Amino acid sequence: MEWLWVLFGVVIFLSFTIEAVTGFGSLVISLAIGVLFLPLEQIMPISAALNICMTSVIAFKNRQSLDNKLLLNVILPGMLLGTIVGFISKDGIDDALLKQLFGVLIIWFSTRELWRMTHQHQDKPRPIWLTRLLTVCAGITHGLFASGGPLLVYAVAGTNIDKARFRATMAFVWFSLNGFLTVVFFIEGQLQPLLIQVLWYLPLVVMAIYFGNLLHNKVNENTFRKTVYSLLFITGFILLISRYLS
Hints:
Number of helices: 11
Number of domains: 1
Low-confidence stretches: none
Distance between the termini: 18 Å
Shape: globular
Oligomer: single chain
Largest sheet: none
Strand content: under 5%
């Protein structure tokens, strides 16, 4: 079992490096790959706690660019409501089905992003009620898998938000929600047995941020993103059929 935690450490380093390069993916990638060999209920608290370290720095540095109106009126209320619903619902869903649902989410996200990049598609503005609905759905997936990013990015892409405000606002959302989830995991006693892993992986997160920042200006981000989305698609497909592989 110990070598699996070492392997998950490699996954943590890779996923946080990817986020440092592209600005997305530390949670969805670490969970999508990690759940192939470790239980979701163990790696969710670890990934959520580690994500706070990265997003807190980004959120603080870019706090002047926050879109407070969108954050307070739309994103946080919807995400918080959805996260609570998803977290409560998680215990009533079979683990194998949970993996398959996660796989469907990852396949949808990776396919959409690959199609969007290939066709240079730009999302059109949406009515506010649809943005709110999508935000609640993103919160539900965050409560279930600690991975509300795909749906939330889709929801916010339909608003008139620029790149700087988008990055700052998303960082604050993940810092807030993952902080909330980490507290819940602690209260329920899920985090305490995993604190040693969190401490061991912290230096890997710091190294990943440093390494990712070095790579940021040295790699073709478009090609890099396509590679990551392709990896996510394959991982999502494996999760989808995981019930039949065991």
